[in-house]
Amino acid sequence: MKEQDPKLIKKRFLKELKDVKTSEEKKKICKKYLEEDLSSVFSSFKNLPAAEKARVGRGANELKQLLLTKMEMVKETEKEETGWLDVTLPGKEPILGNIHPLTQMQKKCEDIFSKMGFVTIEGPELENEWYNFDALNVKEDHPAREMQDTLFVKQKGREGLTSKEKLLMRTQTSAVQVRYMEKNKPPLRVIVPGRVFRNEATDNSHEINFYQLEGLMVGEDVSVANFKAIIGSFFQNLFATDVEIRLRPSYFPFTEPSFEVDVSCSICKKKGCSACQRTGWIEVMGAGMVHPNVLQSAKIDTSKFTGFAFGGGVDRLAMIKHEINDIRLFYGGDLRFLKQF
Ligand code: DAH
Questions:
Q1: Which atom of ligand 1 is nearest to the CA of 196?
Q2: What pTM, to 2 d.p., does this model score?
Q3: Residues paired with residue 312 on neighbouring β-strands, in sequence order
Q4: At what angle do helices 6-19 and 50-82 cross, to 10 degrees?
């Protein structure tokens, strides 16, 4: 029968280990003690008298620890003996993330506007109907308010709710205009980047959510000329080329007069190409002089102050700048796409 006293086994083990030289032999000894001697101590354990169990148990555990540690040490020295380090191997390249192209575009816009004195502010994505529509002079029967276009939030007893209580996912960053003007009096210059939501089918130029950049400047004697100068300077900086700006008459409930802003196509230099649908111009945002009703929603004196506002898609700007033909690529999470920026 094998020796059952852990203390004696330990002594024998250490002696045997000392007597051999190579790692190979040392490993063999560790393995033998782990598999044979230690196992036999454990298997005879149950037959021991109760008084002995505690002592032998402790000893056996200590022995197991010792055997495992020695085994590890032998393996380590073995590695040092046989292993070698190839210092000419290339290092492991860390995987670096990069900033999403939409965030890059947003930051770039913020940078340009901040140099022209515009402060960047934010507003809530979960908005009420009043700030998103009523305060902006959007009439009750305007089609944009329809459930087909706007994502309303289900609320119990929605029937009796006022428009300040009815919740929706904001459809436009314009909703922040009156929020801001209630708390801050003119002169003011702000931009509002942010996510907006629409209840619509997706295709290569429509997404259920996307990003907008809103701008608002209110003061004494603010005019369309100021707007044109500022927006022209913005696009010059953004596209870093000589782009031209064109204003076309349009309609928005919250501005009067209203315009669409076009930039000259930087790809074909106004000659006409597929990117600009052969017109030489690309529509980039809506804008106008803030409607007096909107200023009044924020209790601003319309006899003293005027202002302009504008708003456009950040996605669209990024698509134009990088010549991307499908808005859905921004939201697909495909790293092969995202890593290019
Ligand atoms: N909110 C409009 C939209 O989502 C864009 C817009 C047009 C914003 C004219 C404005 C503006 O501030 O003056 O289509």
A1: 4
A2: 0.74
A3: 213
A4: 20
**pLDDT tier at 2 (50, 70, 90 boundaries)?**
low
Q: pLDDT class for 31, splitting at 50, 70, 90?
A: very high
Tell me if residue 221 falls in helix, strand or coil: coil
Question: How many A from CA of 224 to the centre of ligand 1?
Answer: 15
Residues 151, 155, 159, 161, Cα dihedral to 10° = -90
Q: How far is the CA of 288 from the centre of ligand 1 (A)?
A: 8
Distance 48 CA to ligand 1 centre (A): 87
Q: 310: Cβ below 6 Å to ligand 1?
A: yes
Q: What is the dotted CATH code of the domain comprising 101-338?
A: 3.30.930.10
Paired tokens of 276? 């600009």
CA of 277 to the centre of ligand 1 (A): 23
Helices within the chain (DSSP H only):
6-19, 23-32, 39-44, 50-82, 101-115, 129-132, 175-183, 224-239, 292-297, 314-322, 335-338
DSSP of 55-124, one letter per residue?
Answer: HHHHHHHHHHHHHHHHHHHHHHHHHHHH----TTSPPPPP------HHHHHHHHHHHHHHHTTPEE----
Give 235 Cα–ligand 1 centroid separation in angstroms.
17
Domain assignments of the chain as residue spans, ordered by start: 2-82, 101-338
pLDDT of residue 189: 98
pLDDT digits (tens, 9 = 90+) for 238-257: 998 788 999 999 999 999 99
Residue 252: CA count within 13 A, CB half-sphere:
27
CA distance 206 to 263: 20
Residue nearest to atom 8 of ligand 1 (CA): 311
Ligand 1, atom 12: closest residue by C-alpha: 310
300 lines ligand 1 (CB under 6 A): no
If you average pLDDT over residues 173-182, what whole number do you get? Answer: 98
255 within ligand 1 shell (Cβ under 6 A): yes
**Distance from the CA of 172 to the center of ligand 1, in angstroms?**
7
Q: Tell me the chain's radius of gyration from C-alpha atoms.
A: 37
Please state the atom number of ligand 1 nearest to the C-alpha of residue 288. Answer: 13
Residue 125, exposed/middle/buried by CB under 10 A (0-12, 13-18, 19+)? middle
